[in-house]
Amino acid sequence: MQLGDVANGQAERYGKPLDGIRVLAAEQMQALPFATQLLARLGAEVVKVEHPERGESGRASQPSVEDPNGRVLGATFLRNNFNKRSVGIDLQSDAGRDLFLAMAPNFDVLAENFKAGTMDRLGLGRDVLAEANPTAIVVSLSGFGNTLDSPYQSWPAYASVVEAMSGMYDYKTQPGDRPVPNPMGAVGDITAALFSVVGILAALRHRDTTGEGQHLDIAMLDTMVAMTDLVMNFQSLGVEREPQPAPFLIVPVRTADGYLIVQVVREHQFANLVELIGHPEWATDPRFAERTGWNEHLADVLLPAIEAWSADKTRTEAAEALGGVGAVSGPVTTTSELIADPHLARRDMVVEMERPNGDGPPVLVPGNPIKLSKVARGPETRVPWVGEHTDEVLAAELGLDADALADLRRAGTIT
Questions:
Q1: Domains and their CATH numbers in the chain
Q2: Quick one: DSSP state of residue 246?
Q3: What is the spatial distance between Cα 100 and Cα 408, in angstroms, rounded to a whole number?
Q4: Long-range CB contacts (< 8 A, 24+ apart) of 239-247?
Q5: Is 359 known to be catalytic?
């Protein structure tokens, strides 16, 4: 889907569920920007406040392209800032703080994701924002929370830190091995973002019934512990780390054109698998009577037989055959195959943004996975340049004229 496209015809008829909701976000990197991008895709208007010169820290990530002014436009920023407007304000200045507070009454959601205590030091803490707009949902997203006395509250956090502290890395690491960080990218960020959106929507619903705003305090570590719920649950049942041999099969299987992942977690699935590959007798073989036996005899018995069966089949052919008998599998998709996947194309899950200099293939960003039957998908707008909408927003929100804007710009308060 290209920017500006509307993938179904529902927008004019139904609008979007968050039409009219306005978000003012002092945000950086991925956790909050992913959340506000999702809100924007559901209809909210998002105004992003960032440093007037360098912008927010996600712009400096790599790999990158350049914006029209030759400034770095990093991948983290590109993934998380569609459908927003950028206002460049120096929040460390008194004048910048005053601009933020002056705009606050015009927005439904006031959100930030700095290290705990940063907004208080800027004179923009939750109590100050609530006083400026008592009906606003004030959102604080940080590594370890803002409102309770966490021993880690002063620590900065990236996704890998809270992922590690959730116990998942240790659970997946066998004794003597090193933990593997970031096994799936910034899961800690996206997890926090999704729980933030749930909290914001719940708080907005509460405001609908009471007329009251409130503070939403999201700790990334809390959200990762919730996402990796089996770690805590299994530990209470006596399982400290992933069992070896595991009582299930999750195995890569070689086919004629690459690898397939096959997952077997129940006895009937195992019986269906071995029958399909020509060894129905293994369903009652004592070696496989316990689920742990599937892995104990994987290398010497099961995998050679499975790969003998799959050797002349493509990944798709093998997956369809396995699915036909109730066994669960799917191809190991390459990155090049992913962006050309027909499933993603049909569900508008690949969004194209032309590179600012027009040189090279478009920048690709995942689309919105939330498919509502009465909500249009799109149109999407590209990420903003630093301070691209400063004059437009401050004139509309605060009535500042050209002279006032010029004075603020000369003082370095805005860009």
A1: 11-230+366-410 (3.40.50.10540), 249-332 (3.30.1540.10)
A2: -
A3: 13
A4: 240/171, 241/170, 241/171, 241/172, 241/173, 241/174, 242/171, 242/172, 242/174, 243/292, 244/174, 244/295, 245/292, 245/293, 245/294, 245/295, 245/296, 246/292, 246/295, 247/290, 247/291, 247/292
A5: no
Selection from 245, 254, 242 nearest residue 295 by Cα: 245
Contact yes or no for 255/318 (Cβ under 8 A) = yes
User: Which residue(s) pair with 45 in the sheet?
Assistant: 22
pLDDT number for residue 6: 64
Contact yes or no for 247/267 (Cβ under 8 A):
no
CA dist 358 and 280 (Å) reads 58
* Mean pLDDT over the full length of the chain: 95
pLDDT of 12 > 70? The answer is: no
Q: What are phi and psi of 142, to 5 degrees?
A: -145, 175
pLDDT at 140 over 80: yes
Burial class (CB in 10 A: 0-12, 13-18, 19+), 6: middle
Catalytic residue among 108, 189, 217, 391: 189
Rounded mean pLDDT, 371-388: 92
7's tokens: 């993938």
What pLDDT score was predicted for residue 68?
92
Nearest by Cα to 162 from 137, 131, 139, 187: 187
Q: Average of pLDDT values for 120-136?
A: 98
